[in-house]
Every structure is written in structure tokens, then in C-alpha cells.
């Protein structure tokens, strides 16, 4: 039996955001990058100005990721970060915002799916994004996640056909993650040409909140996306600044996005 909306650990965050007319700021950080200690400090710092946090599990073959996230993944792996280490990192950080784990399927299968779900539930993890698990591709895995306390969050491409979109969102939970443009992750100077149309197509298919990510790297882009969607995901730009300039600079960058989103509400 799938979890209900009232049981979802993400639902209270979205309810609070909707009641205040705000858009969610959802940063992505690679677990263990640039070092384990700095990663922990970064998680704590961004939690102070974020609504939901995505924590990426390092994987040796990150095909959906661009060069920035790939570099962060390889550096984290070099220092010994694993899925077990990711869970330990989340536990030590003692974060007070919902956590979504962002992972490829292989690390979770090696860890043990049921063991992972139990351990993540115990930590209070709110959701799971599996980048290489298309909807309908593995009913056993999907069903196990959907029956757990973790929301199974779907990634939707802007080119997804309507029939495929209906299948994908049928089993979606928590929110829908709409990819802003085709290709791998990475900061970019432009968003998808018909992003507004893509958001509206997803809204027609599901009542779940819609968050948009892939390529968002400036306050102006964040503000533009927030006019269309319920949440803004920022990953590569944040990870790049964290790696080059440290926690303080990463927080200031994220703060500039937070300000842009809040200015939109006050305007």
C-alpha cells in the first residue's frame, strides 16, 4: 500500500510554502565533496536558507551528470564516500529540513534495497530520486519505495510524450522534478525554450508540486523559474562554488537565489 499524502514527510514543507505564496529553494550537494567535513558543514549551512535539500550519492558511472557533478562525485569517491557514508553524513548533520537522496540505482541495490529504505526511514529521509529508474522499468523496486516512508520522486524530461508522462506521474510522490533542458546537469546561461509549456503539461498531468532543475545558475534564472513552478533546484553552480571558494561563498550564492525568490513574492 502506497503512503498517503498525510504520511509524506515532504507534504508539510509544500503546504507551508503554498500558504505563504513562496517557491521552494532546493539545493543539491554531493555527499563528501569537497571533503567529508566540509560537506557536513555545507549541508548545515544551506539548511538554514533552504526548504528541501537533495543529497547526491557518489557513483562511479554518473552518466546523467555534467562535468561539475562528475568531478565532485569522483573526488568524493576518492575520499571513500559511499552510500553508507552518505547516510552517516546526513545523520551527523542533524538537518531540520526535508532531505531527498539523489542516487543511481546500483549503489542502493548493492547496499540492499530493503536495508537502505529502513535505514533512510530511520534517519527521517523524506524522498528518493533514482536517476536511472524510468517509470515502469522495475515494478519491484518502485513498489518497495512507494510502500516506504520515502517519496518516490520522478524525473521528467521536457520531451516526454503525454502518454509517457501520464505513466510517470501515476506512481510519483512528493513532487515532480522537471528537467529544464535536454542533456546532462550543468550550469547554463539559458533555460529551455518552452519551459513554461513543459511546466503546464506536467501540471495538467498531476496535482503534485513541480520543481525545475538542470542548469539554473543565476538569481534571474531562479526568479524566472519560480514564476512558473513550485520549486527551483540548483546543483552544478552551487557545487562548483563550494569546491572553488568554500562554504561561505556557497551560502552567499544560495542566499542570492533565496533573495530573488522572496523578492518575487513581495513584488
- Number of DSSP strands? 8
The CATH topology label is: TIM Barrel
For the biggest sheet, the summary is: 8 strands, parallel, barrel
Note poorly predicted spans. Answer: 1-6, 183-187
Considering the protein shown, what is the CATH homologous superfamily? Aldolase class I
Instruction: List the strand order in the largest sheet.
Output: 1-2-3-4-5-6-7-8
Q: Mean pLDDT score, rounded?
A: 91
Shape: globular
Q: Which secondary-structure class do the elements indicate?
A: alpha/beta
Layout of secondary structure:
Elements: H1 11-20, E1 24-30, H2 36-47, E2 53-56, H3 67-78, H4 83-93, E3 99-103, H5 105-111, H6 113-123, E4 127-130, H7 139-147, E5 151-156, H8 162-170, E6 176-179, H9 195-205, E7 210-213, H10 219-228, E8 231-234, H11 236-245, H12 247-266
Parallel strand pairs: 1-2, 1-8, 2-3, 3-4, 4-5, 5-6, 6-7, 7-8
Helix pairs in contact: 2-4, 2-12, 10-12, 11-12
Amino acid at each position: 500500500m502506497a503512503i498517503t499524502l498525510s504520511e509524506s514527510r515532504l507534504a508539510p514543507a509544500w503546504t507551508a510554502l503554498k500558504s505563504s505564496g513562496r517557491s521552494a529553494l532546493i539545493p543539491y550537494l554531493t555527499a563528501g565533496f569537497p571533503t567529508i567535513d566540509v560537506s557536513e558543514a555545507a549541508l548545515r549551512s544551506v539548511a538554514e536558507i533552504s526548504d528541501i535539500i537533495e543529497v547526491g550519492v557518489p557513483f562511479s558511472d554518473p552518466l546523467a551528470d555534467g562535468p561539475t557533478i562528475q568531478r565532485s562525485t569522483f573526488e568524493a569517491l576518492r575520499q571513500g564516500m559511499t552510500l553508507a557514508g552518505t547516510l552517516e553524513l546526513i545523520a551527523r548533520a542533524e538537518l531540520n529540513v526535508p532531505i531527498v537522496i539523489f542516487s543511481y540505482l546500483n549503489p542502493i541495490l548493492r547496499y540492499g534495497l530493503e536495508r537502505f529504505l529502513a535505514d533512510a526511514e530511520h534517519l527521517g529521509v523524506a524522498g528518493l530520486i533514482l536517476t536511472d529508474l524510468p517509470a515502469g522499468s522495475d515494478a519491484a523496486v518502485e513498489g518497495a519505495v512507494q510502500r516506504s516512508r520515502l517519496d518516490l520522486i520522478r524525473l521528467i524530461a521536457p520531451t516526454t510524450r503525454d502518454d509517457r508522462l501520464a505513466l510517470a506521474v501515476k506512481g510519483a510522490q512528493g513532487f515532480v522534478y522537471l528537467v529544464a533542458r535536454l542533456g546532462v546537469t550543468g550550469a547554463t546561461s539559458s533555460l529551455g525554450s518552452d519551459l513554461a509549456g513543459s511546466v503546464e503539461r506536467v501540471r495538467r498531468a498531476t496535482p503534485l508540486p513541480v520543481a525545475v532543475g538542470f542548469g539554473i545558475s543565476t538569481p534571474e534564472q531562479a526568479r524566472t523559474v519560480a514564476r512558473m513552478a513550485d520549486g527551483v533546484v540548483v546543483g552544478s553552480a552551487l557545487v562548483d562554488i563550494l569546491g572553488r571558494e568554500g562554504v561561505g561563498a556557497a551560502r552567499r550564492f544560495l542566499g542570492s537565489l533565496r533573495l530573488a525568490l522572496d523578492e518575487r513574492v513581495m513584488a
